[in-house]
Amino acid sequence: QVQLQESGGGSVQAGGSLRLSCVVSGRYGCMGWFRQVSGKEREKVAIIYNDGTTYYADSVKGRFTISQDNAKNTLNLQMNALKPEDTAMYYCATGSGVSAYNLCVPQYWGQGTQVTVSS
Predict the structure, then answer these.
(1) Cα(87)–Cα(107) distance, rounded to whole angstroms?
(2) Is the pLDDT assigned to residue 58 strictly greater than 90?
């Protein structure tokens, strides 16, 4: 059983930065960050595949950076220039993935960490 634990969420004003971290006990072909606003579908934010390939949602390109620290079994998401529309619960996940098709199917999820951006 893979376990994931997020940290680093909080409240920040628009234009500010936050760094999310996720300690992972194991991993599969891909790892990523997803977010969900109450009443809406969970959306993919950023993915990193085993070969280092990354994917970003158009809404966060140029502002967010996904990275992994294999020595610490940690997945990170650096979020800069935050906007009120980035407000959501953020989840890290790992699952099966194929970078050539930008296909990542999460199988294990963390509990989530709340990010709130005020205008």
Answers:
(1) 24
(2) yes
